[in-house]
Specification:
The complex is a heterodimer of chains A (108) and B (121). With 108 residues, chain A is mainly beta. Chain A contains no helices and 10 strands. Classes of the chains: A mainly beta (108), B mainly beta (121).
């Protein structure tokens, strides 16, 4: 089973700043099966990226995904008010399709 | 527009059973895998189960294996989650999600609004 860890647990930033979120896998993963999700308070999760860097429909280009091997990164340039949320990475290459514990991006 | 509407949640006693349903619309249902995820109160996301399109392959998370069964009815554009031997730790909001492809190894690219399941005496 792939174990995903995310850091930091909480990221306190101001609107307009850049957020850099990390997702580390317990072993090297095929990044074709790595996803990032956003969950705003009180809402269902929303897919941001699949295959690590392929932006899902409707996701603004201030969001970018990158990485390989065991280290994946989600970058949000110029934070907008609606970007303050919890972000999860997920590996779906083999069952069980595990999630990381999440990174909360909150307003400083 | 993709829409997913879960139903069937509620309060159930430990050891009891519940069947969740998810009605899908806005896409060619039989071409996509379907997932169930859950989120316990104040906790992170947990993947529960997936069923592929075509050969109906299924997989389950370790915490529900042997107790939960996923199924689908392509004639009705619906996916189900039969939950047996429920435990307090199964208390969560359950989300149905459309897979990003026909295969079980797919991301959840559209999610429903969720259905709350509470297991308590």
């Amino acid at each position: 089973e792939i174990v995903l860890t995310q850091s930091p647990g909480t990221l306190s930033l101001s609107p307009g700043e850049r957020a850099t979120l990390s997702c580390r896998a317990s072993q090297s993963v095929d990044t074709n099966y790595l996803a990032w999700y956003q969950q705003r308070p009180g809402q269902s999760p929303r897919l941001l990226f699949y295959a690590a860097s392929r932006r899902a429909t409707g996701i603004p280009d201030r969001f970018s995904g990158s990485g390989s091997g065991t280290d994946l990164t989600l970058t949000i340039n110029r934070l907008e008010p609606e970007d303050f949320a919890v972000y999860y990475c997920q590996y779906y290459g083999s069952s069980p399709f595990t999630f990381g514990p999440g990174t909360k991006v909150d307003i400083k | 527009e993709v829409q997913l509407l879960e139903s069937g949640g509620g309060l159930v006693q430990p050891g009891g059973s519940l069947r969740l349903s998810c009605a899908a619309s806005g896409f060619t249902f039989y071409n996509y895998a379907m997932h169930w995820f859950r989120q316990a109160p104040g906790k992170g996301l947990e993947w529960v189960s997936v069923i592929s399109s075509n050969d109906y392959s299924t997989y389950y998370g370790d915490s529900v294996k042997g107790r939960f069964t996923i199924s689908r009815d392509d004639s009705k554009n619906m996916v189900f989650l039969q939950m047996n031997s429920l435990r307090a730790e199964d208390t969560a909001v359950y989300y149905c999600a459309k897979g990003s492809s026909e295969y079980t190894s797919s991301a959840g690219d559209h999610w429903g609004q969720g259905s709350l399941v509470t297991v308590s005496s």
